Amino acid sequence: MAINMSSSNFLFVLCLVCGAVAAGLCQSRGKTIFPRTFGLNSIRLLIEGNGYGYENYTVTTEDGYLLNLNRIVHPNRTGSDRGYPLLLVNGYFMQSEAWLVQQELDSNLGFVFADKGYDVWLGDQRGTERSKGHINQTIDESKLWDFTYHETGVYDFPAFIDFILNKTNHEDLIFSCMSLGCTFHSVLGSKRPSYNQKIRAAIYFVPVISNNRQPEELNSFVYLMLRTVPALTEISEKSGRIEWHPNLGNLKKEFYHVCRLLGYNLYRLFAKIMFGSGFHIPHEKMCNVIALSMGGASSRVTKHIVQVFDNAGFSEFDYGREENLKKYGTALPPLYDLKKITTPIAFYYSDIDQFTSPKGLQKTIKLLGGPSYTCELPNFNHLDVAAGSTFRFVLPDVINLLDSLTGRSNDTEKFKSGKCPSMEWIRHLN
Ligand SMILES: *[C@@H]1O[C@H](CO)[C@@H](O)[C@H](O)[C@H]1NC(C)=O
Ligand SMILES: *[C@@H]1O[C@H](CO)[C@@H](O)[C@H](O)[C@H]1NC(C)=O
Ligand SMILES: *[C@@H]1O[C@H](CO)[C@@H](O)[C@H](O)[C@H]1NC(C)=O
Ligand SMILES: *[C@@H]1O[C@H](CO)[C@@H](O)[C@H](O)[C@H]1NC(C)=O
Ligand SMILES: *[C@@H]1O[C@H](CO)[C@@H](O)[C@H](O)[C@H]1NC(C)=O
């Protein structure tokens, strides 16, 4: 029945059919209100503009970086107990806005969980626009930007987690990530196992951990990109620039104008080539959504990602033989030991994701030291979790899982069931 039905029609029918079961899906709270500017302040404008309070804190890492940590303050919970803490971390070249740019307000994971009674924190990892400071004010640019995603996992996450636990007086928190944000968590769990106890569970969306797609499985465009990026980073590093796009504010504005000029169809074509065939980002505010989500990164992070696709496994940064010998004492960089990750992890992954294949992911899951829960998202583009219109249909399962993990529902076995109910019906929605 659903082949040609738009998602809103389908939803309407679903509401009629399922009644109370789908009640959470049926009350649309309207459109997200987007700020008109793309500055450092856009997260505050985005959160306050949609009726929530905003707080932010500066957190210092063990290696001296000053990071921005955002918090959504639900208007009904402003006292000291604001609910069980939830830390959200975004993906590559994104920042915290990525959790709040769904065009329907109630499709935004950050806002939905605040409404459900959770204390929602959003971490801006090092290298993103609001997290470029260092306690050593005279530190060289080249030193400041000399980090890969390894340092984010090993230093940024502990700083965020310890700060939140101290501030909220909770013993643990739940962590959720998309894409590269999940890579950071895997690094943390394997390199600093004591943090496994501080995270009750991790919820991964479209994670990129191991060499989950072989080069020949990647489409030619992504493959070409992976082949050219190392050369490009080499050039930019030789000219002393390891920050990727220092003037991100301008880049966002330029992107926004070009995106509007090129129009939806051209952009969609590009995104499909790059990220996979399903693409469900609604037309209307697409350019705002993408411009707001963009964060920064160092070229080393980019290079490290490329290495994941090239190397045999999930390993620390490859500096080349000579440097590796000095740094690690081995010619090849050490692999991350996935057995050390004992935190329970829920995987929401797509069957068509350009960057992670279901088969490769299953292999990774088998290597983990802790239990897992899996949920296959049919026909999800890599970007759909952040901005696609079908993500809202996945949220009820995520909410049930979280409520179960935090003792807020009577179903204490959901995670142990190992798997979500089939979501195959989402495949044909537009
Ligand atoms: C975060 O806090 C700092 C210090 O209080 C403040 O200067 C900055 O503007 C805040 N950031 C945002 C986005 O409001
Ligand atoms: C906030 O509190 C008011 C008054 O108690 C209540 O009517 C409203 O439903 C609450 N909002 C949420 C989202 O919980
Ligand atoms: C600060 O950075 C400069 C330049 O990299 C370095 O020479 C200096 O030792 C650093 N100071 C501290 C206290 O780490
Ligand atoms: C926790 O916070 C208190 C007060 O805000 C501070 O004095 C203490 O040093 C913090 N503890 C840790 C382990 O960060
Ligand atoms: C959980 O079970 C208790 C006791 O059986 C019941 O009173 C309560 O309504 C249930 N809560 C939910 C969320 O189902």
From TrEMBL:
Keywords: Glycoprotein, Hydrolase, Lipid degradation, Lipid metabolism, Signal. GO terms for molecular function: hydrolase activity, acting on ester bonds. Residues 46-102 form the Partial AB-hydrolase lipase domain. Pfam families: Abhydro_lipase (PF04083). The keyword Disulfide bond does not apply. The active site is at 179 (nucleophile), 353 (charge relay system), 382 (charge relay system). Residues 1-22 form the signal peptide. GO terms for biological process: lipid catabolic process. The keyword Hydrolase applies. Belongs to the AB hydrolase superfamily. Lipase family. This is Lipase. It comes from Apolygus lucorum (Small green plant bug). The lineage of its organism: Eukaryota, Metazoa, Ecdysozoa, Arthropoda, Hexapoda.
